[in-house]
Amino acid sequence: MPLSVAVSGASGYAGGEILRLLAAHPDVEIRTVTAHSNAGQPLVDHQPHLRSLRHLTLQPSTPEVLAGHDIVFLALPHGQSGQYTDALAETSLVIDAGADHRLTSSADWDAFYGGEFHEPWTYGVPELLIGDGAKQRGKLVGASRIAAPGCNASTVALSLAPGVAAGVIDASDIVSVLAVGPSGAGKSLKTNLLAAEILGSANPYAIGGTHRHIPEIRQALRGAGAAGDIRISFTPVLVPMSRGILATSTAPIADGVTDAQIREAWESAYADETFVQLLPEGSFPRTADVTGASTALMGLAIDRAAGRVVVVTAVDNLAKGTAGAAIQSMNIALGLAETTGLTVNGVAP
Ligand SMILES: NC(=O)c1ccc[n+]([C@@H]2O[C@H](COP(=O)([O-])OP(=O)(O)OC[C@H]3O[C@@H](n4cnc5c(N)ncnc54)[C@H](OP(=O)(O)O)[C@@H]3O)[C@@H](O)[C@H]2O)c1
Q1: pTM (2 decimals)?
Q2: Ligand 1 site: residues with CB under 6 angstroms?
Q3: What does the domain layout of the chain look like in residue ranges?
Q4: Cis peptide before 60, with omega less than 30 degrees from 0?
Q5: CA-CA 20 to 30 A from 250: which of 32, 49, 63, 290?
Q6: Which pLDDT tens digit goes with each residue over 307-336?
Q7: Segment 100-126, tens digit of pLDDT
């Protein structure tokens, strides 16, 4: 008997991608989809690509509508998930795509988000190193409350965690510059996301330590075993592609470390992973290679002249960055095969 699922925020980008992937998942039945201002309308009016779900109507996102399912996905603006906590107390698995349950530090929450702080849930990045060679996957087994990651945050954390865990890079001087597609900012109308502002242009934003994913990256790298201060200069740049992240992250090479030791850190971290793949030496990923895929594709360079390791990682912000991570985590929590319903193959060109 399939598990019943409700997806809240189903008219949005993250909710739409969760639905697209769940529609191909053999163990679940999408029973309920909910929205806010668009409640009452057919789902396909807002997600016309979801043809197999054309029978569904968006219901209001009330606690009563969401209760009574085996699994509930929340894909709402941050600060909106907490209102469902009590109503979903009996729900065996709740997965939040928003930021509300990601951070363990209330001080970080206050500094970067503000509003009520909610308890942290199990972080939904299975491949993330968490010290002593262990991975986050172990914590997801049997989890009942999962916080899916921020797309930029998980991309950078996966990029650098192997180097931090092995002690081959210095985490006190990380620089990450990301080319990002505008779907990462959601579907609501904003002037800076209009086609006229974006097409033919590359537009930086949240510059100078203000981006909300910074504390999440620091938290993840601390968990991976970073010794001492973690300092990161983080600059996202909006580019004209609807989805995708190409993150270039660099950090100083630790003293006395050989090139072989550096490469070995990444190779051993991800050799057995399906959805995080390190490319051969000299190869680097493109965003199109992971469009629609649950894959984080990574290239590693050692720049001895600059004394820095360079990691370039491509991720689909809506797939591996959100919905793919959420469903992979769901599979682990429920004891299903981890890759069920997910693909490693992108859509290129
Ligand atoms: N986009 C990404 O790449 C990405 C990646 C990782 C995580 N996330 C996270 O996923 C969440 C959703 O992001 P998104 O990009 O999908 O945003 P979005 O496209 O703007 O969609 C927001 C959804 O939330 C609903 N909503 C708005 N206000 C609400 C309220 N007060 N109460 C209940 N529902 C409300 C909207 O319904 P109506 O349309 O009916 O108003 C819509 O379904 C965010 O927390 C975001 O940080 C997004």
Answers
A1: 0.97
A2: 9-15, 35-38, 61, 75-78, 80, 97-99, 150-151, 183-184, 186-188, 317-318, 321-322
A3: 3-149+320-334, 152-317
A4: no
A5: 290
A6: 999 999 999 999 999 999 999 999 999 999
A7: 999 999 999 999 999 999 999 999 999
